[in-house]
Amino acid sequence: MLDLSPAEWTAVELSLRIALVATAWALPFGIAIGWLLARAKFWGKTVLDGLVHLPLVLPPVVTGYLLLIWFGRKGPIGGFLYDHFGVIFAFRWTGAALASGVMGFPLLVRPIRLALEAIDRRLEDAAATLGANPLLVFVTVTLPLALPGIIAGVLLCFARALGEFGATITFVSNIPGETQTISAAIYTFLQIPDGDAAAGRLVVVAIVLSLAALIAAEWLGRRASARFHGE
Amino acid sequence: MIVLALEVEKQLGALTLAVRFQIAGGVTALFGPSGAGKTSLVNMIAGLLKPDRGSIVLDDITLFDAAKAVNLPPHRRRIGYVFQEGRLFPHLNVRQNLDYGRRMSGRPRDPTEFERVASLLGIFHLLHRRPRLLSGGERQRVAIGRALLMQPRLLLLDEPLASLDAGHKGEILPYLVRLRDEAAIPMVYVSHIAAEVRQIATSVVRLDDGCVAATGGLELLADAR
């Protein structure tokens, strides 16, 4: 039943690559921003909080359009990155990863922030008295205790990135083999006569992938929290 | 020989803490009613709370000096701290909790020392358990072991029996007495219960309303209950 054509396999492979790269790049930023929002006191915190959540409430087309303006070859950020690092986002799969990462970012940050806020700070004090410098306290106490929240955030971000459509298609278009993800491919197949069967196959793939991600995260989350609650 | 010389001031809400005392070896009890500033004081010694004024000197090393702007962070003070609630790391098992201080300071494993402390505290059979599965008394013994195994210059015990019921209190005190008699580590023992202090302390600093009311031996507890 799932006899995918090479073009369909390409879309699946691209989707996975884009979602993985987007999540992997977003994670360190997500932990840093989550930490800032949970722990730091600074001017403009409300603004940062709002900016992080913006992709959640803006129409995805608007986010995609803003990315196109800023991260295009001639955009202020895109131009800089191209001149100095040779990185191109516009109409490349890297741009799709950027768009997916931005769209998934609020979903990544929120659970991480909540997990960091829930940590008993007195445990970090105890670690400091035992000789751990602030970086070691963060790595050996804070991060492990926040792990269930980090896993939840990674799953949500990955799932969002896997299904991203509006911002991606606006920013990097719908180019087979480069930016045509599962979602974009399904959309394309539905536009052509007799595309229903191909679209149906990709729909099944999308459901299977999402379920697999959900189950994996559930399992990882259980393992992580079991560590705190006994063997 | 003076181990710890302390002279600090700190405004804590309505309470003005202004304390000055010196301690030698043995077990010094910080004795006084709740709200006298005992926990704040040990937090200052450990480096978790910054005094407004004054200085703290341990073994001729200045830990804190407001005038010279010296304030050693807690991880560089090498002071063991046993908290009221234990504060074991929930994501680590007992062995990893005990090993934490050694790992953070990058010292090599010392199985002899580990076994000595584990058997002194009777926690050998608990090594693979998670803190969640320990009784209150076991948890405090592990917390004491964890602080001892970092090879502290000074051991702070902040009401280590307060979270335990009467039966388990009796379970811990003999270990602390053995510790006092076998280990050469000076200790500061915070408590508001005279009976406890009589069993463990060798000298007493009586704290009342943020000030030192008296310093001396166990005779200071004559009228206390």
CATH topology of chain A: MetI-like fold
- The residue ranges of chain A in which pLDDT falls below 50 over 5 or more consecutive positions are none
Structural class of the helix and strand makeup of chain B?
alpha/beta
| Strand composition percent of chain B | 25-35%
The number of helical runs of chain B is 6
- The coarse overall form of chain B would be globular
Helix/strand/pairing class of chain A, anyone? mainly alpha
Structural account:
The complex is a heterodimer of chains A (231) and B (225). With 231 residues, chain A is mostly helical. Chain A contains 10 helices and no strands. Chain A has a single domain, classed as MetI-like fold (Orthogonal Bundle). In chain A, helix 1 runs parallel beside helix 5, helix 3 runs parallel beside helix 8 and helix 5 packs antiparallel against helix 8. Chain A starts with 5 loop residues before the first helix and ends in a 5-residue tail after the last helix. Chain B has 225 residues and is of the alpha/beta class. Chain B has a domain of 154 residues: 3-Layer(aba) Sandwich (Rossmann fold). In chain B, the strands form 2 sheets. A 6-stranded mixed sheet of chain B has the order 7-8-9-3-10-11, sandwiched between helices. In chain B, a hairpin with a 4-residue loop joins strand 5 and strand 6. The longest helix of chain B is centred in the C-terminal third of the chain and has 17 residues. The radius of gyration of chain B is 17 Å and the shape is globular. Chain B starts with a strand and ends in a 9-residue tail after the last strand. The model of chain B has no long low-confidence stretch (mean pLDDT 91). Classes of the chains: A mainly alpha (231), B alpha/beta (225). Chains A and B meet through helix 6 and helix 7 of A and strand 7 and helix 2 of B.
